[in-house]
Amino acid sequence: MPDANPLDLAGPLADLHSDALLLMPDATSVAGDEVPMPFHALLVHRSDMTSTLSRFHGSEIQLQVLQQSIDETSILRAVILRRCRDNQPVEYGAIRIFLKHFPEAAAATLRAGTTPLGTVLSEFNIPYVSNPLGFIRLHTGSVIAKSLELDATGDVVYGRRNRHLTPAGDVLADILEILPPDVPARNVD
Description:
Layout: H1 6-10, H2 12-16, H3 20-23, E1 28-30, H4 39-43, H5 49-57, E2 61-70, E3 74-83, E4 89-98, H6 104-112, H7 117-123, E5 129-139, H8 142-147, E6 156-165, E7 171-178, H9 183-186
Antiparallel strand pairs: 1-5, 2-3, 3-4, 4-7, 5-6, 6-7
């Protein structure tokens, strides 16, 4: 995603907020090999973030929906993923889920807004391919900082634009995933 348009970096966040550029005003595209550790280990892969974060943090992950819009075809939401063991936020995200590619029971679970997408994919044995579109670096603005429960704005954070695809290439979900700046500290009890 070199020289990407800032709205392309925002993905589903731009669909949620008409002022998405204000939420990530200085977002820039970075190559995967430019993402520093431990962010690199958490972002530069072809898996879902829920299971990746769960392994890294040694805790199940729960979903907090901040904002959502649901219609017959899709769910659009801003979310926080939290560690179950201490309720710490481990990701801020925006996601559009395309319901027609999910079995009805899985779609009902997704509509309920209580289970992260990665958990639904696993529990319902839904085959998918994770297809990262690019990686981003930005400074936290007030909305993202508040959502991640940070004391101040301006921290450097990293994230990725990702799509989960069916094996046939249909889009299951379009996702923006942003990690908090203090990932190493949050990995320690």
